[in-house]
Here is the input.
Amino acid sequence: MMKMLRGSRALLMLFLILISCNEAPEGDKRTYRMGFQNSAPRFDDFDMFVQSLNMWGTRADAAMITTEVPWKEIFSGTDIVDYVVDNYGVVNYYRAKNFKLWVYIDPQNGLDRTADALALVAEGKSIADPDVQNVYRRFVFVMDSVLVPDHLGLALETNLIRSAAPAAIYNGVKQAANLAAQDILAVKPNANVSVSVQADHAWGRLAGGGYQGVAQDFADFPFMKELGISSYPYFGFDTPEEIPSDYYSRLVDGKDISVFISEGGWTSASVTTDTRTFTSSPELQQRYIERQAQLLSAVKAIGYFQLTFTDIDVDQLPDDVPANIAYFAYLGLVDKLFQPKPALDAWDKIFKRPLTE
Here is the structure.
């Protein structure tokens, strides 16, 4: 009998050892879902969007939709419900893949944080106008009702807008987002509503100076249930390894709130602005993806998004696209011909880690 017990105990110990060997160490797990906004090298090529979707859809468990309000279409008489139904059919694909869906709606200018959206300027209007805020609120409500996202963002890079734009525009964004949050929370009290902040600006890496934090954003948008973070640190650091380990966690120090990377990346090619050149390479981009995993683990993030999976073919852009989009043209994990970069392998290795939510 004792021999049998000893044998059973030995088998149990062997079983426990085998189980522990199969368990990934904590550093090899991820708390965050990963994904993209569907993108393509050319904005007018439907087949490219499908090709992109088929490539990144196998290496994601979440999806992002980030959009400015379609001001031009709405002011031209397009019904908002019809617009949303007609333009976001890709959500059916996301649901079929069981992706968690983040939707972010920008009441301002996504490529120029100093100004109103171009379509508003063309109409002689501003987000500072109460009637424009009401259009935004209606669009937000319809997007939430039709698409039923798991997470809803009501303004983007609010700290950067506050610093760069006229006070009237920032106050308009603040007013519009708070009113929209009231609308959503009135019918969905547990909705995961948020805004995003720009991490590089919060750390003083864009315009110089020291750490500023985002305390004012928490005060101005008190409805936040979670926080989105935008980060393009190649504008402020020469190498990914220079990014502080608390680059994200310090932004929410002392707060019990979930965070996610709502947009960002590291260029794989050198880019030149009006004032300086940012030198990079595919190898630096790969190292950034690897560094990103460390930063995300430090803050126990719940999501990680790259808005662009592919590079942008800047030579084929429509004339009305602002020239500064070229600064973000080489953030993709594949190039404009869909050829993988080294960063894609880094992303895939992280994605294969077990997800613990």
In short: The radius of gyration is 22 Å. DSSP finds 13 helices and eleven strands in the chain.
